[in-house]
Amino acid sequence: MTILAVILGRLADLYGRVRLYNLGFALFTIGSLLCALSRTGEQLIIFRFLQGAGAALLAVNSVAIITDAFPKGELGKGLGINIMAANLGAIAGYTLSGVMITYFGWRSIFLLNVPIGIFGTIWGYLRLKETGIKPVGQKFDYAGSVLYCIGLATILLGLAIGNPTSGRNIAILASGLVVFIVVIIVELKQKYPTLDLKLFKIRLFAVGTSTSFLNSLAFACGPFLRSLYLQLVLGYSALKTGVLLIPMEIVIFAVSPICGRLADRYGSRVLTSLGLAFNAAALFWFSTLNSKSTYTAVLISLLLFGLGMALFATPNVSSIMGSVPADKRGVANGIRMTLNQTASVLSVPFSLMLMTLVMPYAKLSQIASSAQLSNANEVPIFLKAINHACFILGIIVLLTIIPSSLRGPRQEGNRDTGSKE
Asked: Residue 141 and residue 13: Cα distance in Å, rounded?
């Protein structure tokens, strides 16, 4: 999904967002069924790629379709409802996945997607209509797309496998960066580039995507660090840990539509900055927890983080999508998604890297992979490593408030194009 988002966004701009959205539902459904029927690990990987391609088509186009459909002054409301629906799915996933795997096996997770996917495909085909503006006479950039995929895949590989500070990983990362520099050079010369770097000349887009990346990195590190704390320090089971994280999703679910309406009325600058402040406070609070802390103390951090994400996410997406030209909304959302997904990929190695300032990487990697400590004597230093990582992440989010507060006023000019009101 991370690698394909920008390319699929560009294809959607060229050939129709609703068309590719419906195709995504169909591919996701077929991929889910094939995953459930797979007989080998290799088959499962291949079918998961097909399922992921369908999911990428859905994710890239949903926000762009909402932006096309909602009139000026109501985009935040539409995006808030979209985020609310996504978090409802996350809550259902927390509660249903463990139960279904326990009683019906892992294949049931994929089979559950099939009737939902069939309904979504048929409903989307019958109900959704193209409202966006398609560019005329533009061609797809094959050279830039191939180079982009190679460069991003190499960078992610260097960051995600093994020790990110090892010589091998540094060499892989350097190779990916060289390819990506070539991508930038090629795309700047293209008349109709896949990776449209000119979008970053738009202040709201540049600030929105950069702050979203930094906040997403901290947010994605949270579940990993909280799970380590709850399971290895407090001794909770994996299932109980998953259930205890639900309150954060409930807050996001409940508050996101309200924040969307507030963004429509007052703009995004204050709301996003306030959300980042709450997220930083959540991380600082979590960095103070110890081996005798209760779940109530953890809950305070979860509620702060949920409120912070609700205040930040919807207004920020509204700011980004409302600032770009109508015929660039697909690729713009693809860039936003790529940065957010890259942050998610980076979250575990970045968390471990921060923790290595207190505890050796080899030991941390062993603990993370085995999900257990060797003995009780390791708890104090392991807890210190978690607290240290949370404190640094809190500083990163706190500093992100500076560019967020400088994003400037809303640009209303691009909201009127591309939607039939």
From this structure: 13
d(Cα 31, Cα 398) in Å, to the nearest integer? 41
Q: How far is CA 194 from CA 4, 184, 322, 331, 351, in A?
A: 11, 11, 20, 8, 32
Question: Splitting the chain (421 residues) into consecutive groups of 10 residues, what average pLDDT does each group show?
Answer: 86 91 94 93 90 90 90 87 84 73 83 92 90 78 90 86 78 91 91 90 93 91 87 83 85 91 91 95 94 91 94 93 90 92 86 86 75 76 91 95 82 45 32
Nearest Cα neighbor of 12 from 338, 419, 334 is: 334
Q: Tokens in use for 271?
A: 């709301």
Secondary structure of the chain as H, E, C letters:
CCCCHHHHHHHHHHHCHHHHHHHHHHHHHHHHHHHHHCCCHHHHHHHHHHHHHHHHHHHHHHHHHHHHHCCCCCHHHHHHHHHHHHHHHHHHHHHHHHHHHHHHCCHHHHHHHHHHHHHHHHHHHHHCCCCCCCCCCCCCCHHHHHHHHHHHHHHHHHHHCCCCCCHHHHHHHHHHHHHHHHHHHHHHHCCCCCCCHHHHHCHHHHHHHHHHHHHHHHHHHHHHHHHHHHHHHCCCCHHHHHHHCHHHHHHHHHHHHHHHHHHHHHCCHHHHHHHHHHHHHHHHHHCCCCCCCCHHHHHHHHHHHHHHHHHHHHHHHHHHHCCCCHHHHHHHHHHHHHHHHHHHHHHHHHHHHHHCCCCCHHHHHHHHHHCCCCCHHHHHHHHHHHHHHHHHHHHHHHHHHHHHHCCCCCCCHHHCCCCCC
